[in-house]
Sequence to fold (185 residues):
Amino acid sequence: MTVLDIHVLGSPVLRQPTVPVAGDTSKLQPLIDDMFATMYAAKGIGLAAPQVGRRERLVVIDIERNPIVLINPELISSEGSERGEEGCLSMPEIYGDVERKSTVAVKALDRAGQPFEISATDLLARCLQHEMDHLHGTMFIDHLSFLKRRAALSKWEKEREKYPNALRKLSAEEIASHHRTDGEL
Fold:
């Protein structure tokens, strides 16, 4: 497995819609493994293909040691509403309170290309919505009020200097830390 560079705000791929995966999903297996390795090394709980510069409609999530792969995910129902703080691996050190649906149901293909449905509440529901937004070129800051978005972007202007070419290259220390704590990957 390879830890990939993470595209940060300013990289065009983050604002482009993804392309549905058609046919055999077995060719995605190395990418899925690399996305999990990248997400773990970056200490995230979710990662979408555009964040690693890819256009496939693909998301990986792991909350509390429960890895989930979603290929071509689609929201099939949602209800309720709750506000909660979000951050993003593509905007390190930037956070904002985002209004999301409190309960969601999503259909997708799993890692083996088999259809499944997942219902979620709380953090998993928020994570599903956040990562699926990435598949449509939307980032969490797009859900903030004008003033809060402007404040987040102002803070990002200072942070983005750390990421030449709009790429977040994880350090050898971050990668080594991942291998020590998640050695089974």
